[in-house]
Structures are given as structure tokens and as C-alpha cells.
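lol ok so funny story. i was supposed to be doing the assay writeup but got distracted and ended up predicting the structure for this chain instead. priorities right. anyway since i did it might as well share w the group, maybe its usefull for someone
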Amino acid sequence: MGLQGSRGNCRQETGVNVAEVVPISRGKMVRDSFLLSLGIMAISGMAMIVTYWAAERGLNAIIQECLRDLAVVTASEMDGDLHERITRPDQAGSFAYHQAHGPLLRLRRSVPDVDDAYTLRGSDKDLRFVLDSTTNLTNQGDDVSSLVIGQRYANAPLGARGAARFGKVKVSSVPYTDPWGTFLSSFAPFRDRARKTVGLVGVVLSMATLNQQLFPLRLALALSLTGCALLSALAGLLHRCSLRSSARSLEVSLQARDLASRAAQDSEEANLARSTVLATMDHPLRTPLNGVIGLTDILLSTTLTSHPASCLQTVRNSGESLRLLLNQLLNFSVIDSGALVIDAAPCRRRPASPRAIRCGSSWPRTIASTPVSAS
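and the output, tada:
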């Protein structure tokens, strides 16, 4: 019974439960695929945003440098002495006014992206308008009236105040907002014949114009982010399909393993059933054979001629060989089925040892000679 119980345990250990072995669930696959898509989107999106930020900074630097150059060139063309003579609002339509603001008009006509060009005079705390290019050139859709000579610049940007205070060219680093809108500006001082600073030239670029120049870059960023999102979603979908395929392959492999284990169990059970049947057929097989051998012995004890006696002796020897082979086969079947019963009985080891050695040494010769005698 102990042998049979150990085999049952072995069969239980070799059994495979596919539901317990496969750890990949549908929710986990969706979560992993989503995290993969999110990671790809975050990395690529961050790279694109940084690239856009660097490109925008570069473009802003180029625009600021262009504004600086335009202000410097226009200031070099200004007539400081003539500019000093324009002090009253009624001089706005005079010949001197038109002659003085000629460089501003040439700048506006040569660079259409410039929204306005004007001049200022005064200290950094009290800047006032003098010349304004919008008196002759108005922007399309601009309903703001022209500046008045001597009008105070209430919310003058820091660039204008810095240029008036230090006498150096200044460019707005960030857009500023005043009553006329949001702009980027550059300011350059100009001088009279005595090299005295008499005013500032202001060159203005509105944020609407700047946004138009940045529009292609922003459109490229939006399209890149959209494409990145689509590619990330596709990568997540492909990853999910890959996980599902791997899970199915693992499930099929485990099912095949389970089928092979069950087939091995069935084969072992069939062998055990065969051994059990043979073990239970002990007496039905031995009794007829013993009867044949017993009747042969009875016939041999009678008076027979030499030929029948020889034939009967051959039958008896064959029966004895068959009985010995059958006994060995049935003993192995009993052991294989786990039904072997060992009887504990006292014995003397010294007389029994030679007999056991002789019996053990005679088994191979008996089994090897059995087919010859049976034939």
C-alpha cells in the first residue's frame, strides 16, 4: 500500500493547472500597453517641445537682432538738429516735419513687417512723442489715431527708459503691453552735430506679426505631437497584440504539457491496472497448471512403456518451467501493483543464506532456458 500511495503523490505533483501558471491577465496587458504608449508619448513629446522651445528662442533672438539693426540704421539717418526744432503739435503737417520723419517712412516702406516707427525725446522718467510714421502710413485695420507731438508716453517700456538713461541701444527682451497693443521694440539714440543725444528712434513689431512668423513652427509642433500620439497608440496596440500572442502561446504550451502529463498518468494507470489484474489472476492461472503437473505425476507413477513415459516426463518438465516463469511474472506484478505482502517469520540466517544464494544464482539460467524448453 505504501508503494501505491507514493505513486499517487507523484501523479498529483506532475499535474499542471493552466489557470494557475498563466499570470498575464487582460487588465494587466491593457495597463502595460497604456504605460508603454504613455512613456513613448512623454519622451518624444518632451523632445519635440524642447526642440520647439529652442527654435522659438533662436527665432526671437534673430528678430531682436533685426530690430536692433533697424533702429541703429534709422537713428544714423536722423537729423538731430532738425528734430530739435519740432516742438509744437501744429508742426505736424509742416515741411520740416515731413523732412525730419523721412527716415521713418523709408524704414516702413523697405521693411513691411515693421508696424510703426517713431521718435521720442526727454528723460527716462518723462518721455514724449515727436515724430510718428503713422501720420503718412497707416496699418491695415488700425483705427488708432496718430500720436501728437509732445504727447507723454505714460507706460514707456523698460527698453525706452534704458536707452534714454544710458544713451545705448536697447531691445525688448520680452513683449510689453501699452495702450496701443502688445509689441517687441528696439530703441536707438540719435545725436545732433554737437554729438549730443537729442532723441530716440523706436522701431515696433507687434505680437500679431511675430505670431505669424511663429505660426509655421507651431503648426509643425502640433502636427509632430499628433503624429507622435498616433505612433504611440500604434506601439501600445502592437505591444498588446504581442502580449496576447505570447499569452496564447504559453497557454497552448501549458495545455500540451498538461495533456502529455495526463497521457503519462493514463499510461501509468493502465500499467498499474494490468499489474493488478495479473496479481489478482494468481490462483486462476496457477491452479490449472498445478493440476496438469499433478496429473502428470500420477501418470508417471503408473506402469508405462518407455516412449509414453518419456513424453509425460517432457510434459512435466515443461509444466515445471512454465510454473516457475509464471510464478516470477506474478511476483513482479504483485510488486508493481503495490500489493506485495511480507510475512515476518523467525528463521535462522546461517542455514538459509547458502540456499538463498543458490536460488538467486539459478534464476537467470532458469529464465534463459525457459524458451528452449518451452519450444
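The domain at 79-213 is CATH 3.30.450.20 (Beta-Lactamase). The chain has eleven helices and six strands.
back to the writeup now i swear
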